[in-house]
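Figure 3 (text version): structure tokens given as input.
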């Protein structure tokens, strides 16, 4: 299964987000979140990051920022189904950020494409979302020889 064609507006937003991300360095130095283990990230970018949400969910932005800063790889978050219902600019921003609606098929496709994947299996509430259980995601990653790493901020 191939990715759908990317619209010119999404491409423009990708460029804008990349530029904004590059400009975040001074803010990150000021904010100074505790980050450890970046040197252990596989340089090929072929890995699955499994995390837990904090109260403010800032890790959805911070983890991809630090991974990109460390190894130059864009992280592909698996997003809650509600993001799949978005339209217009909101949908374009989510797509430009690299997120896809988190389904088992989407996770399999990204693994097959050697993408760096970020998933929060518990979502922001209680219980697993997407029909994806953490153990199932990790087992599938292991079967596909994709390294699975735990992450949090």
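Below: residues designed for each position.
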């Amino acid at each position: 299964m191939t990715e759908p064609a990317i619209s010119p507006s999404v491409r423009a937003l990708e460029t804008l987000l990349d530029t904004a991300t590059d400009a975040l360095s001074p803010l990150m130095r000021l904010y100074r979140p505790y980050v450890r283990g970046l040197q252990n990230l596989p340089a090929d970018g072929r890995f699955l990051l499994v995390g837990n949400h904090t109260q403010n969910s800032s890790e959805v932005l911070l983890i991809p920022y630090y991974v990109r800063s460390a190894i130059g790889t864009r992280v592909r978050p698996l997003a809650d189904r509600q993001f799949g219902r978005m339209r217009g600019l909101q949908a374009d921003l989510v797509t430009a950020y690299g997120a896809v609606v988190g389904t088992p098929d989407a996770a399999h496709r990204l693994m097959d494409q050697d993408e760096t994947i970020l998933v929060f299996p518990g979502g922001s509430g209680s219980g697993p979302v997407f029909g994806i259980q953490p153990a199932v995601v990790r087992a599938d990653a292991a079967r596909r020889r994709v390294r699975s790493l735990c992450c949090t901020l």
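The first helix runs from residue 8 to 22.
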